[in-house]
From TrEMBL:
It comes from the Bacteria. CDD domains: QOR2. The keyword Oxidoreductase applies. This is Quinone oxidoreductase. Residues 11-322 form the Enoyl reductase (ER) domain. PANTHER family: QUINONE OXIDOREDUCTASE PIG3-RELATED (PTHR48106), QUINONE OXIDOREDUCTASE-RELATED (PTHR48106:SF13). GO terms for cellular component: cytosol. Keywords: NADP, Oxidoreductase. It comes from Pseudothauera rhizosphaerae. NCBIfam families: PRK10754.1 (NF008024).
Length: 324
């Protein structure tokens, strides 16, 4: 029987179990996918810890790439033998074999490997909506991205640079600063040594930036607001340091009629037409070489608990894969 990582109660990485699972034939509207690679993302830890509660017991994981082995009744979006990738849908990507709604799958171009597909979908589609939909970056813009050496961060740095932007990024070490710089970050700021809000003002001649992309949350939120110029936008798309506590929205007025948004990938890709358009743009910049998808860590799927420990300890950079 195939195996999958499952958890029966919320908690630390130790709750992740390597279980045998029964995978029935796909139901109507579903496709059965045999994974070649599975993506690791910070949101997986939110599900595991209960920050984002899910019914238990549960599978885990939102991103993978593999081959379609069977399809259910009425499926027209993919066919048996297709190379596919996905981000989103029901939890359960940490598995050797799974069924998933077929309309969540996109065909993977021949120029991209399974590893690239599994490493790029969630993080790359996130970068797409951040840069092209939430705040549409224009040539000449100066932007701030937190966690610039992370999976989303490295893609955002490269893509924003290709769009003609100047990129400021926060990182936790000199090694991560060098990595971010190598991927298009013009001004890496080591936040353990410098106050990033002050440095952003210095870099922009006191003006501030039109947009801050913040996946850190509680630790950076107030200073992120302080980096924005009037009418700037704070895009809060994660909470690696914990959720932002309640605050007086009058601050948005005091700091210059600011905009604040909390988008999710799953809203942006809810309609299949949007998913396909976003994926096509992502695949275009990847195959053109404007964005390099690099896998910096690989773990056996059964060792997912250790991957979670390393991710939460900030010992990872770029994309991380779990290999079935």
């Amino acid at each position: 029987m195939p195996h999958a990582i499952r958890f029966h109660h919320a908690g630390g990485p130790e709750v992740l179990q390597w279980d045998e699972v029964a995978v029935p034939p796909p139901a109507a509207g579903e496709a059965q996918v045999r994974h070649h690679a599975v993506g690791l993302n910070y949101i997986d830890t939110y599900h595991r810890t209960g920050l984002y509660p899910v019914p238990l017991p549960s599978g885990i994981g939102l991103e993978g790439a593999g081959v379609v082995e069977a399809v259910g009744e009425g499926v027209a979006d993919v066919a048996v033998g297709d190379r596919v990738a996905y981000a989103g849908g029901p939890l359960g990507a940490y598995s050797q074999l799974r069924n998933i709604p077929a309309d969540r799958l996109v065909r993977l171009p021949a120029a991209l490997s399974f590893e690239q597909g599994a490493a790029m979908m969630l993080q790359g589609l996130t970068a797409q909506y951040l840069l092209r939909r939430t705040y549409r970056v224009q040539p000449g813009d100066t932007i701030l991205i937190h966690a610039a050496a992370g999976g989303v961060g490295l893609i955002v740095c490269q893509w924003a640079k290709a769009l003609g932007a100047t990129v400021i990024g926060t990182v936790g070490s000199d090694e991560k600063a060098a990595l971010a710089r190598a991927h298009g970050c013009d001004h890496p700021i080591v936040y353990t040594r410098e106050k990033f809000a002050g440095r952003v003002r210095e870099i922009t001649g006191g003006e501030g930036v039109p947009v801050v992309y913040d996946s850190i949350g509680a630790d950076t939120f107030m200073d992120s607001l302080g980096c924005l110029r009037p009418f700037g936008t704070l895009v809060l798309f994660g909470a690696a340091s914990g959720p932002v506590p309640p605050f007086d929205i009058g601050l948005l007025a005091q700091k210059g009629s600011l905009f604040l948004t909390r988008p999710t990938l799953f809203t942006h890709t809810a309609k299949r037409a949007d998913l396909l358009a976003m994926a096509a743009e992502l695949f275009d910049v990847a195959t053109a070489g404007k964005v390099r998808i690099e896998v910096n860590q690989r773990y056996a799927l059964k060792d997912a608990a250790q991957a979670h420990r390393d991710l939460e300890a900030r010992r990872t950079t770029g994309s991380t894969l779990l290999l079935p």
